[in-house]
Write the structure tokens for this entry.
Amino acid sequence: MNLPRLLFLPVLCLLIAARVHSAGLTLHSDFPGGSAEVHALDADAGLIEISPVSREGRGWPCWWYFRVDG
């Protein structure tokens, strides 16, 4: 057996998981059609609380459109 080859995949997975965990969470709605007001963002707990944005003249605020990174 080739030990370095056997260890490559588990080590790669751990490195990717560590990078994702350290990146934290960010929420974006600053693009065409984006709609989200952030009330709470706790990257450690993985918690995001949002509500739709009320825009004058745009009808009933009942939808969300956003992107979460991290």
Observations:
- The radius of gyration is 19 Å.
- DSSP finds one helix and four strands in the chain.
- The first strand starts at residue 26 and ends at 28.
- The beta strands are 26-28, 37-42, 47-51, 67-69.
